[in-house]
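Re: your question from the hallway

Yes, I did run it. Sequences:
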Amino acid sequence: MKRIINIFLHNIREFKRNKKNKYKIRFIIFSIVFISILSFGIFSLIKSFSSYYSKANLSLDIQTAMFVLDEGEMSFNIDIDQIIPKDEPYIYTFSVSNFNEERKSDVDLKYNLKIQTTTNMPLEYRLYYKEYNLDEKDIITRRDLLQDEDSSWYNLLTVGTTYEFSYTERTTNIYYLVIDFPTVYKDVIEYSDAIENIEVIIDSEQIV
Amino acid sequence: MKKNILIVLVIISLFSLYLFSNKTYTAYESEVDDDVTVDIADWKILIDDQNIATATRDINLSNIVWDSEHTDNDKVAPGSKGTVRINIDPTGTEVAIKYHITYTDHTMDPNCILTVTSIYLENDELQKDSINSYSGIITLDEMKDTQVLVINVEWVNDENSDEADSQIGSNGAEPNYLNLEFEAEQYRGE
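Structure:
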């Protein structure tokens, strides 16, 4: 067996040594490859044309739910012409709704309130929800005096309650911002050119 | 030498012919006499009552039910889960069908809002071929009735996308929800 293999290998070597045979080998290999590719191509062609085939592009008819939170006048300035020290408080109202002129919110949502003010005037702030009377409680739960990046001082008043709106109905929440300017400052001249800026900040999100 | 080459080529040709004959089906048999009559099998598939066999169609699907506790049920918002139902009517077809559902959803393209969670035909979950493709077979026995394809989708609530989602919910612009493609071909067995 070993002898037969050696003879076979010897014949192959001899065959390859001859330059002419090298060209013949290349031609044979090329012919094999070419016919194989041709066969495969014809076979694939016949196979691809012999089947039914259909296609459709599908799109979805979807409406996006709208997130609507409407806030009425959230930022206003008070100057000394509008407000003077007195015993009776000044009352400002603002509202928060889950609808506007065009549409209503399609999702349940919740929000928190904060009030940020400058410290140019010695005003005192209280906030009431739905109505303002002596029986109602001030809903501000935290009062901080802070500095911003420009080192300016400001008041941050935080309401501890989270309010919710249901998408099933149009709802408006009304708040009463009560501002006291004590009479003890009646004769203080340094506030004669003062302006106080008051801003209501609402953080809202969808209830998932 | 030429004679040897010729012999080799003949052998290869014979082998190729063998391959041909091994793979073709003899589905129909006709007796050729004076007159030759061949019945051609019908191919007709309706997707939501639209025949896709005559041309590639763009079909707008409207049978979608959303399930979300805190959202209007006719609409979609982050956290919504929905079911899309597609009626496939193969009753006009006389060959078995292999079909593929291919989609581009949020996992493939972040600009798409929805994510496909599963696809069923009637109550059977389809085989997933790849990351975004399912396939199934409708046999000749199943041709008698309309089949309902159910695609479950979800708008996944991702806090990292809150800003982008809020833009969609505020400005009213319609985003790209999901791209779906349905392909059907004659099924001739494995």
